[in-house]
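Please check this record.
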Amino acid sequence: MRRPKDSLPPPPELPNFTIEPDADELRHIEERYGDTGITRHAVTLDEARIDQDAARVVRRLEKAGFHAYLVGGCVRDLLLDRAPKDFDIATSARPEDVRQLFRNCRVIGRRFRLAHVLFGGGKIVEVATFRRKPQEEEEEGEDLLIRNDNVFGEAHEDALRRDFTINALFYDLERRQVLDWCGGMADIRGRVIRTIGDPTVRFREDPVRILRAIKFAARLDVGISPEVYESMVDNRGELARAARPRIFEEISRLLRGGAAHRSMWLLWESGAMGVLLPELAAFLDDDEGNAGAGARFYRRMGAIDRLTKERGSPDDLASWCALLAEPLLEYTTGVRDPQAAALELLDLVVERIAMPRRIADGVRRIMAVLPKLAQGRLGRLARTELAAPALDALELELLARGRPTDMVHTMRAELGPVEPAPEPRHRPRPNAGPRPSRRH
């Protein structure tokens, strides 16, 4: 298995923010954190990028006597000079405490209870109680898969149960300090993905972390530490044990966010694609034998990234069409019943990664009419909910082939109001004959 190419930018010149505590600070550490191995870093984050509603939630929780911090991705992104998409809060308050403090709050979830504080425009600030790894999961054993992650704990325990060091940083708004229990600030400076603890243990606890490592490396344009990447390769087979709906959602996220090209390259290079989408991986493994299928595939992924940067992520249906185009074309070319062949392949994907049936059916229908779309005809899709994603799929295909996309913009302008397609009571098959045998 080849290693990722060394094409990362040099680490930024960041100052050392570590605080040398005086007597008052030492007393504060002892009272608030105890002997937990904390390192605190004095930073001045861009106040304009900190969501003021999230800041108000933190301050009200603190005023009520609870500990509360900005956590996770928002802290990471601010330190990397990126605009965070969401602001999450971790607190010592229980979900019921949060609900009593905020009238605009609802508690969601059964196994993993969270408080959502609601603001205008549909904004949600997520508030989670500090959690720790359950005792029974800490015992050694062959099966490390986490099945229960809903035990309340302390701030340092919450940090140490997270996946990667750069995602385990807490920001104290009042003192303007980053709280670091696991070396995350050093990895922010080094622009590297590193697990908290032994990567083999962490990936066996939750194999989806392999996909998350790929996502963060691609989106943030950072490296993966050699020991973590080696463990990803060695433990890629564990992905077959993960919850299938989570696999589908994580692959969908890899297609969003403007880094589909690098995400899919890492997915293939690490061997994870061979576990989850072996039909696609086979094409990329034998690019020469498949007449340049790999080059066409990566041009489609690049087209997704281009559209994402220009106007936001394409419809998920369109992105999945681009992802599966090569194996679908192989399955449906030169056969008597292309629709049945496409259904056969998509059934494999549905079974392996829990792709929702509506997505699978939409991909099949859009790919079937793509040649007509290229001639400027929407046909029966014109008045259905598939019209918009079909045009996105066409635009991606034209961009990947280096062709003008003017016709897509014209078709969008001419498209009238879109009506939802009725949900079929039973999933129709393209023919009534026997189902074709599956390919292996």
